């Protein structure tokens, strides 16, 4: 589904990604782990076209998307939920969801999609006509994910969905992601600093450190790997 080879990304003189190779299978959940500054957010920004790659390549279902911009990527089926949620707080829950569906040409989807999202995230259904600013952190995260899903992506890029949430809320959100994958075959690339949460839901995991990939394995194997945990995940 997604093939990243030799990806290099820089902010001026700062090299944030230094030759990353990652393959993501269709329908899988892949976690990207690592401590602060490892390059996780930069990886998602490079894939979604927000930060042009310096070199290397990103392929989506065989198509070269290395130079594609964010809008092209939404059309190609990639949706990005940035860190810090990114919902529009002045708008209602429903208005935020409708905005997420604006990219779709099939207008019929708007109604179906809206109904599906409210079913998938019951707290959003209860707060459908409330402004997003009245939502809790967990509900805002649900709204950000649901809004991204309104563009009907095949690949969802999620940046730290559990950040700042109570463990129970984070677990609820992660369980919903699993349901989604099972029901729709969605492919997920999940950035997390919280390795425990991410490894409990992911099939595979890669670990980044200082812009390089230092581990890449089945999630269950990585969860059992004390060496990797101590060296790169408890910073
Ligand atoms: P975090 O969990 O804190 O977001 P991260 O693993 O996502 O960490 P990145 O945000 O991708 O890490 O940062 C990777 C490197 O790039 C770090 O050294 C960081 O200081 C640097 N960096 C990130 N954003 C910028 C920027 N806008 N300008 C300059 N350097 C940046």
Automatic annotation (TrEMBL):
Residue ranges occupied by any ABC transporter domain in the UniProt entry: 2-235
GO terms under biological process: L-amino acid transport
UniProtKB keywords: Amino-acid transport, ATP-binding, Nucleotide-binding, Transport
GO MF annotation: an example: ATP hydrolysis activity
Gene3D superfamilies: P-loop containing nucleotide triphosphate hydrolases
Source domain of life: Bacteria
Sequence similarity: Belongs to the ABC transporter superfamily.
Full protein name: ABC transporter ATP-binding protein
Organism: Amycolatopsis acidiphila
């Amino acid at each position: 589904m997604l093939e990243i080879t030799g990806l290099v990304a820089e902010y001026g003189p700062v090299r944030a990604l230094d030759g990353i190779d990652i393959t993501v299978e269709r329908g899988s959940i892949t976690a990207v782990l690592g401590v602060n500054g490892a390059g996780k957010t930069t990886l998602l920004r490079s894939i979604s076209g927000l930060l042009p790659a310096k070199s290397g390549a990103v392929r989506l279902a065989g198509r070269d998307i290395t130079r594609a911009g964010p809008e092209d990527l939404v059309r190609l089926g990639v949706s990005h939920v940035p860190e810090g949620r990114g919902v529009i707080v002045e708008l209602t829950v429903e208005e935020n969801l409708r905005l997420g569906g604006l990219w779709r040409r099939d207008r019929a989807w708007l109604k179906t999609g809206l109904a599906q999202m409210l079913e998938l995230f019951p707290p959003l259904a209860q707060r459908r006509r409330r402004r997003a600013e009245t939502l809790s952190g967990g509900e805002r995260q649900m709204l950000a994910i649901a809004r991204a899903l309104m563009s009907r992506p095949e690949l969802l890029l999620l940046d730290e969905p559990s950040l700042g949430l109570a463990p129970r809320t984070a677990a609820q959100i992660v369980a919903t992601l699993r349901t989604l994958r099972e029901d729709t075959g969605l492919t997920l690339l999940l950035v997390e600093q919280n390795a425990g949460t991410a490894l409990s839901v992911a099939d595979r995991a890669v670990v980044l450190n200082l812009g390089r990939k230092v581990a890449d394995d089945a999630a269950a194997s990585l969860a059992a790997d004390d060496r990797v945990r101590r060296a790169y995940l408890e910073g």
